[in-house]
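can u pls check wat happens w/ pyridoxal-5'-phosphate
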Amino acid sequence: MKDSNFLKENNARHFWHPMTSPEDSKHTPPKIITSAQGVSITDIDGHEVIDAVGGLWNVNLGYSCQPVKDAIAAQLDTLPYYSTFRGTSNDAAIELSYELAEFFKPDGMLRSFFTSGGSDSIETALRLSRQYHKLRGEPGRTKFLSLKKGYHGTHFGCASVNGNANFRNAYEPLMPGCFHIPAPYTYRNPFNETDPEKLAHLCVAALEDEIAFQGANTIAAMIIEPILGAGGVIPPHPSFAPMVQDICNRNGILLITDEVITAYGRTGAWSGARLWGIKPDMMCTAKAITNGFFPFGALMLGERMVEAFEDNPAAKIAHGYTYSGHPVGAAAALACLAETKRLNVVENAAERGTQMFNGCQALMEKHDIIGDVRGGYGLMTAIEMVSDRTTKSPINAKSAQVVQDVAYENGAMVRISGPNLILSPSLVLSAEDVDTILSALDAGLSAA
Ligand SMILES: *Cc1c(COP(=O)(O)O)cnc(C)c1O
């Protein structure tokens, strides 16, 4: 390993970072993280902080999770790679498909299609939606519906259903036939509705309007995050997802839940679908599936998909990823699933999540810079920062950076995404860890 001066000098010099400009990386050099243990990370200067980001919503079991590391090492020794394209398979992927079918049985999921991450899982779900309708004699159903503020990854299909202009503009034109419905975002919405339940009904009415306008028989699928994540942690009213499911069912539209964040316990339920009591046709999962230790994803498929694709020689799945069913990823996922169940992480996620949410609400009483606090379902919490509470004008980027920097000095890595400060720590953190995060945040907010 090169010494720390070399690394600092070359930081962001030969390396373009995602989600920022090369210019910004030069002026605000990325923190260089060199090790991690438990729920904490340590930077190149030896400064250790609690990682309130949890990697990137994915290190649910913390950084030290030995069974996952051991499974990866053992798999590398026996079979480091083999493809699962037509004609070959591997033991780890087979076992994982069995375990996932058990795990997601309550959600109505029966099959897995393995991918190398979240975007791949979304892309495959969109593709299989169109193919599903072709197989059933409705080739005109090609359009997709999704929510404004939604985040569904980076591939062109994913970006097309994304509901945030920041991730779209530079890459347009995107895929035609994708339409966006207002999100049930109580703090800001086009209806000026502040009651979450009434807002849910208004959004659902907008969905019905859009379906009538497009023609139901032109729409393949609707994709939603059970709780919007990157868009700023937006939990809908509990009535929302069941109403969406009902409308999709009545109109022959497939329902896809993007559970890249919400699957495997983060919300205090084992999946977002279970949290809201719905049964989607497909569930996209990735991130925590391997605790962030290996790039991997699984698209889960329900009964309608099975009926259309199985016992049908014409139903060829005409795409795949070189790393679909990667044996090392599958072995990591198997160990991860076993640990996730053994530790019953949903329980701690729910308890610590409530503590975090209440703590952030208490901070709101003290800091005018906080416009809104969202969460209350497990360890997904966001603070939306404003420069003025009455006008709700968003905080400027510089002040947001101060919050992050000072929180970091005081012991917690938090994530800034636009005006939102997002907290998505490992699900195994302790009550004291949450207190440390909250007091670091308090310091950051005071400084700004
Ligand atoms: C992270 C994320 C994705 C994209 O996953 P990648 O692994 O980055 O491709 C898709 N949807 C949601 C909800 C996500 O949070």
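The pocket of pyridoxal-5'-phosphate is lined by residues 117-119, 122, 151-154, 225, 229-230, 258, 260-261, 286-287 (CB under 6 Å).
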